[in-house]
Amino acid sequence: MTTATHPRTTTATTLPQPADAPGASRPRTGPEVHLLPQTNQLRALHTAVRDRDARREDFVFYTGRIIRMLTEAALDLLPFEPHDVTTPVGRTYRGLRFADDLVGVPIVRAGESMEAELRAVVPGVRIGKILIQRDRTTKQPRLYYTAFPEDIATRQVLLLDPMLATGGTALAAIEVLRDLGVPERNIVFVTFITCPEGLAAVGDRFPGVRIVTSAIEEGLNENAFMMPGIGDFGDRYFGTDR
């Protein structure tokens, strides 16, 4: 695969097409897939955003609440190291701090909807970008743009994209990071909703990548839409749906 010029490029690059098909393999299970606790509060928030008649401002507000939960869950997967501090009463608190530097990498455009919540939780966090789109003729994902810190290979990466369906875009983005030297174990893929087919695609090819999500859908329909689904997340979030 031809990789992007580091640290950024605007040249389109053909990326490998995943050889996965809906239902072809079982999703990865166990600790590498982290599903948020399915509480009544989370279900109520999902109900609000899945409603086809939801106002855009409600969609943005309630998805933001869920994205904050996802962000907190993802941060808990990162490495920590001991760090003691002295409290105001002069005692020592045996604490922790993040062991490695962090970078958030939203997949443009929908992934940018998750950027604000990460910035709110981790002020000053470095932000990279990946733009990948599926070619209308070849149907293969193509890399159009990247921007990363030059030391990304030594950082923990939160890869942000609200939807993991067939897995094509996610696989292409992870491939870009791997080509830059980021170990699989340093990548946490944070996604709003996913499905068994998407989990299987990523798990089969990149078993070291951890996935954090708020919902696992029933599966894909004949048009590769997740069911019951949420619609086009990016269009609904940014107000470009018709």
From TrEMBL:
**Keyword set for this entry?**
Allosteric enzyme, Glycosyltransferase, GTP-binding, Nucleotide-binding, Transferase
Q: Which NCBIfam families match?
A: PRK00129.1
> Which superkingdom?
Bacteria
The record's gene field reads upp
Q: Fetch the Pfam families from UniProt.
A: UPRTase
Native organism is: Streptomyces hintoniae
What's the name of the protein? uracil phosphoribosyltransferase
- Secretion signal span: none
Which ranges carry the Phosphoribosyltransferase domain?
37-240
* Gene Ontology molecular function, alphabetical: uracil phosphoribosyltransferase activity
Q: Which family does it belong to?
A: Belongs to the UPRTase family.
Q: Which residue ranges run through the membrane?
A: none
| Cofactor(s) essential for the protein | Mg(2+)
What does the record give as EC number?
2.4.2.9
The biological pathway it contributes to is: Pyrimidine metabolism; UMP biosynthesis via salvage pathway; UMP from uracil: step 1/1
Gene3D superfamilies for the chain = 3.40.50.2020
Keyword Glycosyltransferase annotated: yes
Q: Where is the composition biased (Low complexity)?
A: 1-22
Region (Disordered): which ranges?
A: 1-34
